[in-house]
Amino acid sequence: MIARPLLILFGLFSLLTACEEKIDLDLNAAASRVVIDAQLSDASAVQRIRISKSVAFDAAVGSSPITGASVIVKDNQNHSFTFQYEKDGNYIHRNFKPVVGRTYSLNVTVQKQQYSASSVMPAYVAVDSTRVLERNIAGKTYFFAALSFKDPIKTANYYLYTLSLNGKPFRFASAQSDQFNNGLRVIHYVSDLETELSPGDDIIVRRYCVDEKTYNYWSEYQNTNLSNAVPGNPTSNISNNALGYFSVAPVKAYTLKVAQQ
Predict the structure, then answer these.
(1) End-to-end CA distance of the chain
(2) Is 161 exposed, middle or buried (0-12, 13-18, 19+ CB in 10 A)?
(3) Rounded Cα distance, 187 and 125, in Å
(4) Stated pTM of the model
(5) What gap in Å lies between CA 120 and CA 110, rounded to an integer?
């Protein structure tokens, strides 16, 4: 569960300074639902889509893997990629590297039920520099990974950040758009939402340039957890009442270290 005080603090700080990922879903639902975790990128030719069923909150496992599904991704250039089941709900394609500018469609069949979604792969917006910044907020010191770049003026741009702290699995960090800084030079501040960064910490930030649908999913997740409302499931871009999301995006990783003081 995300530490709410740190998340609220990070959200406020981001607003004032705007000029293998973990997805936390509320699975305490009466009826089991299909969960599709499909984050495809150009980081590798090996792509993974995980398909599972939601389970009760107090169950021994977070989700129940689904076997026997049909999983196909197609692009708008008439290429088709059939994913093969391997283990733990993971369907894999080992020779598929998405291309910028193409539209990709996901089609999943589970026990004769159809689930579909689409995603456009945007161009990557280059980062000019990275560093770790120290900020004093309300009398306390916090560290942030800072990524500086020039936002393109002619297009709407959306960014998703995940972070690995000291070799641990990647977790969602933030979703940001250029709504208030289109075409400007921008610094995005990224931090772990569960653990405060400390001197000596090793950080890897993954920066995805995502389409609007993916941004809306993670922005809703982010805003729900920033509010006083009970965290819920973001609105999926996948049809037929599925949980999860489908995204195809370029990504780059940035390695930083919080300096010892």
Answers:
(1) 30
(2) buried
(3) 13
(4) 0.85
(5) 24
Q: What token pair was written down for 224? A: 């729900």
Spell out the domain ranges in the chain: 4-23+124-241+251-257, 37-120
Report which DSSP code applies to 126. -
Report how far apart, in Å, the C-alpha atoms of 38 and of each of 120, 165, 196, 225 are: 13, 23, 28, 22
Residues 64-93 as b/e (b if ≥16 CB within 10 A, e otherwise) read ebbeebebbbbbeeeeebebebeeebbbbb
Tens of pLDDT along 106-161?
999 999 999 999 999 999 999 999 999 998 888 888 999 999 999 999 899 999 99
Locate 261 and state its tokens.
């003081």
CA dihedral 97, 98, 100, 102 (to 10 degrees): 150
Residue 156 structure tokens: 């709407």
Tell me: domain 37-120, CATH 3.10.310, correct?
A: no
Alpha carbons 83 and 173: distance in angstroms, whole number: 28
